Automatic annotation (TrEMBL):
Gene3D superfamilies: 2.40.40.20, 3.40.50.740, ADC-like domains, Dimethylsulfoxide Reductase, domain 2. It comes from the Bacteria. This is Molybdopterin-dependent oxidoreductase. Residues 73-130 form the 4Fe-4S Mo/W bis-MGD-type domain. The lineage of its organism: Bacteria, Bacillati, Actinomycetota, Coriobacteriia, Eggerthellales.
């Protein structure tokens, strides 16, 4: 595969759009001539022929098949795959209205014709054309969770749901409705428009333990977001901290690694597992789970003590260096080595390498303590500070700063936040306890970073569903999420969802969560809706590929009466009397608005624009009059935003990073540690699944039939566990079972447990709920307040404590 740097040459045409020049908006469009897509540019024709198309019904078919072929209506449509975040470009071949083949688009700068195992060997058919996909709206007719349903029409479903929502709003106030989202399987953030217009502030999801925490804390530090624009392709050193793209972003990683190797760039990996990327690293730090904040402080300490920081940048652009220096001094390397289990020499080596190799980037990483548990804020803040004091912010080859509006309308959309009154905002769940991600925190940073949206605290929300304190939460809409798998403390989530008056789930399949709903509604897949994909890890060629639906409703004889995300919200809004606030009745109406800054309609955008390049404007801080969009106008090593939140809430939030031993750690509770001696992590990605998806029996599940946990061979021997044994994994919350895989990639004191396991082949009705309590790691993870990050309320997926023992035969 070509490196993306060289592959940029093959784009056909570059057109400058003067209306965007002079600021940080998109100003370059790589476009193709205006013909229909299958007769587009030479490179595209080549792409299609390389995919084995018989010239898409335009080339003479082979004689033997001439008659048959003449009767087949065939076309190829371009799309972005949304089976994960990467949005690879694909070419979908349709015959007589059915998709028969999906292949990588060789013209796509990101995947260059490659796809992963989720699409390979026609596996996608097991998703798209799975006979168990939801086909019609279902209304619960028996007890909640009894598996008894009746099919109804969409009209009846919308009428009834809207009526019940209006009644609940009249009785309890709009805030009685909450929304739960998953991860980027739909038009992200669309629900905000509905909840704002309905009048509820309560939207939540897993962003708290994922991206959202960084999206709030980085703007607190430098008034923008850096870690999703790390310049891997030009960095001389990349630090992967809690990120294993070889498992989660394989297609990106292949060419990123090749590019790094060709340029001789160095790689540091920090991870509790000797994972795939660690095996490619120049330096690997095997960190004790949950101690990332301590490591960040130890590295900051070395960099300051050894005078390796960027004096010019710190003196001119940073606020609070003296306070930071004092705090970092509390974390000498030997102490940090004890906390993190990383030898002191390696900590020093990593700090020196990072501070002295220029440029270096430190991309966003997920499960390295970033978004998880008691020290999450400090870990994220510590990493943001490391980027700053080494002078890597907004540098070519460093971590580049996003600014408001730099992707036109495509992310900074009108979601009617103004429609929500201050009185309603103040009711957001978590506002008082965990204000970072709620409206309290959002109000402070929203001017700097409008792309961030506030998040209710999910553990608090589930408790409030049960208690009704301080006000009742009686209704919940779930889209692209499966809370019975996705949130810690599953038994509590179960009780909470069962206590609702109205639960609505919009999904592809019946799931453990849908099984508890009042209405279950068939959703449109990525092939059945409009989309804009944002593939690439390369900040120089962020691509935005638009696509119209590849498949229309009922096309090709399918019997699935789906509604796409937009139609779902629009039609519900129509029944509730605020449809006029939307862009129009169709998804395409909204997409037209998204691409309006490029001077074209969405259909044209899909046909004519191959990809858009976001120009890289590094070192914006050198422009005259520049100020970082923080209260001090500087990079805040000491956060005045956090200080302000502490004052406003009367809470003891620390403006500087720090480390506290979680209550389950032996240093905090030796007795507990004796009972549960192993340190447990979860969330490591494994193919072919994506979060809770693809567990249905068939092509995906055949690749990975059973849940697996990793255990070091020495530990396994000491516990009389052999590879493949079914074992109980137990915490104070209960026990689940998975099969043992012995591997030296984990420390003997650590086990790595797979997440999101359920069994669609098992009974739907309670108490089974598709076997959701058997192997689902969230059954044994706790979300009690004492384990949560005090500022953002994120719960721990890393660093829990567990014990393991072999199942008996009868288990
Ligand atoms: S990596 Fe993700 S986006 Fe690309 S083909 Fe696989 S599932 Fe689709």
């Amino acid at each position: 595969m070509k490196s993306p740097v060289t592959s940029m040459n093959h784009y056909a045409k570059v057109t400058a759009f003067p209306q965007f020049s002079g600021n940080h908006l998109l100003d370059v469009i790589h476009s193709f001539p205006l013909q229909p897509m299958i007769a587009a540019s030479p490179s595209h024709r080549e792409a299609i022929s390389r995919c084995g198309e018989a010239s898409v019904a335009k080339t003479a078919p082979r004689k033997r098949e001439e008659k048959d072929m003449a009767e087949v209506e065939r076309e190829v449509k371009r799309a972005s795959c949304f089976l994960c975040h990467l949005n690879c470009g694909v070419l979908c071949t349709k015959e007589n209205g059915r998709v028969v083949k999906i292949e990588g688009d060789p013209d796509n700068p990101h995947n260059e014709g490659y796809v992963c195992s989720r699409l390979e060997h026609d596996r996608w058919k097991d998703f798209e054309y799975n006979p168990n996909r939801l086909k019609r709206p279902l209304k619960r007719v028996g007890e909640r969770g009894s598996g008894q349903w009746e099919e109804i029409t969409w009209d009846q479903a919308f009428d009834e749901m809207a009526g019940r929502l209006a009644d609940l709003r009249d009785k309890y106030g709009a805030e009685t409705l909450c929304f739960l989202e998953g991860t980027y399987r739909t038009q992200s953030n669309l629900h905000y428009k509905f909840t704002n217009l309905f009048g509820t502030p309560n939207t939540g999801g897993n962003g708290t333990i994922c991206y959202s925490s960084d999206m709030w804390l980085e703007p607190c530090t430098y008034g923008g977001f850096c870690s999703d624009k790390s310049d891997w392709m030009r960095a001389d050193l990349v630090v992967l901290w809690g990120r294993n793209p070889a498992a989660s972003e394989l297609l990106n990683w292949q060419w990123t690694l090749r590019n790094m190797q060709e340029r001789g760039a160095k790689l540091i990996v920090i991870d509790p597992r000797f994972c795939e990327v660690a095996q490619k690293a120049d330096l690997f730090l095997q960190i004790r789970p949950g101690t990332d904040a301590a490591l960040a402080l130890g590295m900051i300490n070395v960099i300051i003590e050894e005078d390796l920081y960027d004096h010019e940048f710190v003196e001119e652009w940073c606020y609070g260096f003296d306070q930071l220096k004092e705090r970092a001094a509390e974390y000498p390397v030997e102490k940090v080595a004890e906390i993190t289990w990383i030898p002191a020499g390696k900590i020093r080596q990593a700090a020196r390498m990072y501070a002295t190799t220029k440029p270096a980037c430190l991309p966003w990483g997920e499960k390295g303590g970033d978004g998880c548990g008691l020290n999450a804020s400090s870990a994220i803040q510590g990493k943001a500070i490391l980027r700053a004091i080494t002078g890597n912010i907004d540098k070519v080859g460093g971590d580049q700063l996003t600014m408001p509006g730099d992707r036109g309308n495509t992310e900074d959309m009108n979601f009617s936040h103004d429609a929500l009154s201050q009185e309603q905002r103040d009711k957001m769940v978590g506002n008082d306890m965990y204000p970072g991600l709620t409206f309290k925190g959002w109000d402070i940073i929203s001017k700097a970073y409008p792309r961030f949206y506030p998040y209710s605290n999910a553990p608090t929300m589930f408790r409030q569903m049960i208690s009704g304190d301080p006000y009742p939460i009686k209704a919940c809409i779930v889209q692209a999420d499966n809370p019975m798998l996705a949130f810690s403390n599953t038994k509590l989530v179960h009780e909470a969802l069962k206590s609702l008056d109205l639960l609505i789930v919009h999904d592809y399949f019946m799931t453990p969560t849908a099984a508890l709903a009042d209405y279950v509604l068939p959703a449109a897949t990525w092939l059945e809706r409009c989309s804009i994909g944002y593939p690439t890890m390369d900040v120089e060629q962020v691509s935005m590929a638009g696509s119209m639906p590849v498949l229309e409703r009922f096309e090709g004889g399918t019997d699935i009466d789906f509604r796409d995300d937009y139609e779902f919200w629009y039609e519900l809004s129509e029944r509730l009397g605020f449809a006029d606030k939307w862009w129009g009745p169709k998804y395409e109406d909204m997409m037209n608005d998204q691409v309006a800054p490029f001077g074209m309609k969405f259909r044209d955008f899909c046909e004519k624009v191959k990809y858009l390049k976001v120009p890289n404007v590094p070192e914006k801080y050198k422009e005259p009059g520049f100020k970082f969009l923080t209260p001090t106008g500087k990079v805040e090593l000491y956060s005045t935003v956090i200080e302000k939140l502490a004052k406003e809430t009367g809470r003891n939030f620390d403006p500087l990073p720090s480390f506290t031993f979680p209550p389950n750690f032996p240093e905090a509770d030796p007795e507990y540690a004796e009972e549960y001696p192993l340190c447990m992590i979860t969330g490591a990605r494994f193919m072919p699944f994506y979060h809770t998806e693809h567990r249905q029996p068939g092509a995906y599940r055949d690749l990975h039939p059973d849940p697996i946990f990793d255990i070091h061979p020495d530990t396994a021997i000491s516990l009389d566990i052999a590879p493949g044994d079914w074992c109980w994994i137990e915490t104070h919350k209960g026990r689940i079972k998975q099969r043992a895989r012995t591997t030296t990639t984990v420390d003997p004191r650590v086990i790595s447990v797979q997440h999101d396991w359920w069994f669609p082949e098992e009974p739907e009705a309670e108490p089974s709920l598709f076997g959701v309590f058997k192997s689902n790691v969230n059954v044994i993870l706790d979300d009690d307040a004492k384990y949560l990050d005090p500022l953002m309320g994120s719960w721990p997926l890393t660093g829990a404590s567990a014990k393991v023992y072999k199942c008996e035969e009868q288990d």
